[in-house]
Automatic annotation (TrEMBL), chain A:
<dbReference type="Pfam" id="PF13443">
    <property type="entry name" value="HTH_26"/>
</dbReference>
<protein>
    <submittedName>
        <fullName>Cro/Cl family transcriptional regulator</fullName>
    </submittedName>
</protein>
<dbReference type="InterPro" id="IPR010982">
    <property type="entry name" value="Lambda_DNA-bd_dom_sf"/>
</dbReference>
<dbReference type="InterPro" id="IPR001387">
    <property type="entry name" value="Cro/C1-type_HTH"/>
</dbReference>
<dbReference type="GO" id="GO:0003677">
    <property type="term" value="F:DNA binding"/>
</dbReference>
<feature type="domain" description="HTH cro/C1-type">
    <location>
        <begin position="13"/>
        <end position="62"/>
    </location>
</feature>
Automatic annotation (TrEMBL), chain B:
<dbReference type="Pfam" id="PF11188">
    <property type="entry name" value="DUF2975"/>
</dbReference>
<keyword id="KW-0472">Membrane</keyword>
<dbReference type="InterPro" id="IPR021354">
    <property type="entry name" value="DUF2975"/>
</dbReference>
<keyword id="KW-0812">Transmembrane</keyword>
<keyword id="KW-1133">Transmembrane helix</keyword>
<feature type="transmembrane region" description="Helical">
    <location>
        <begin position="126"/>
        <end position="143"/>
    </location>
</feature>
<feature type="transmembrane region" description="Helical">
    <location>
        <begin position="99"/>
        <end position="120"/>
    </location>
</feature>
<feature type="transmembrane region" description="Helical">
    <location>
        <begin position="59"/>
        <end position="79"/>
    </location>
</feature>
<feature type="transmembrane region" description="Helical">
    <location>
        <begin position="12"/>
        <end position="31"/>
    </location>
</feature>
Length: 68, 160
């Protein structure tokens, strides 16, 4: 998939664990793992909003388009 | 695990069922029953001369009959597996639509075999061929619906 999720990098820069983020944004760790691994087919705006709010970043910081 | 797989034990049970059904159905055709017992074969031999040509024809017919019943039993088995999955609340997964495709395929093959038997003018079939093909097409359509539903469900599951 040409859309890459850079959630790991943002989490590392914020010194935050996946578990903490999952708790803050109200999704399961399993779902967060799906999102991080790039297996997700779609992301809800509400989830993206919660992630951006929790990590104090922009959607562009999390999602990146890479040509195949 | 693919729920459509038949293990060896089930295979033997199914084949036993096929033979029992085949013999049971052959009661309607005494000359076919003769293929299973030597006594009746003698009766048949008395009634009509079994030539070499006749024998090869009977062999083909017997084989086709056995195959047709086998396909029908396996189709029912797969349909039973599908219903079992539905009862256990496993609705939209890969196995279910594959089972439906298999059922329709086996029913189509059954209809084709009976069409061939009709060509030999020895078998009218237990079921009307037209109905069997119609049911097979209906089941195939349901399989396609299940396939699409499974795709939608997977996408929904992977929406975070």
């Amino acid at each position: 998939m040409p859309i890459v999720v850079n959630l790991d990098l943002i989490l590392a820069s914020r010194n935050m664990k996946s578990k903490e983020l999952a708790e803050i944004i109200g999704i399961t760790e399993a779902n967060l793992s799906i999102l991080k691994s790039g297996k997700a087919k779609a992301v809800r705006f509400s989830t993206l909003e919660a992630i951006c709010e929790a990590l104090e970043c922009q959607p562009a910081d999390i999602l990146e388009y890479q040509q195949e | 695990m693919d729920s459509g797989v038949i293990n060896s034990q089930r295979f033997f049970i199914l084949m036993f069922l096929v033979i029992v059904l085949d013999i049971a159905f052959s009661d309607y055709f005494p000359w076919v029953k003769a293929l299973y017992t030597s006594d009746n074969l003698e009766v048949i031999a008395l009634n009509e001369k079994i030539t070499n040509q006749n024998f090869s024809k009977l062999l083909v017919v017997k084989t086709l009959r056995f195959l047709s019943v086998a396909f029908l039993v396996v189709a029912f088995y797969f349909y039973h597996k599908f219903l079992k999955n539905i009862k256990s609340n496993v609705l939209f997964n890969k196995d279910n639509y594959r089972l439906l495709f298999r059922v329709s395929t086996f029913l189509i093959v059954y209809a084709i075999i009976h069409y061939i038997l009709n060509y030999f003018d020895v078998e009218r079939g237990y079921f009307n061929n037209g109905y069997v093909v119609f049911i097979a097409i209906t089941i195939y359509s349901f399989g396609e619906i299940f396939k699409y539903a499974t795709k939608v469900k997977n996408e929904n599951d992977l929406t975070i």
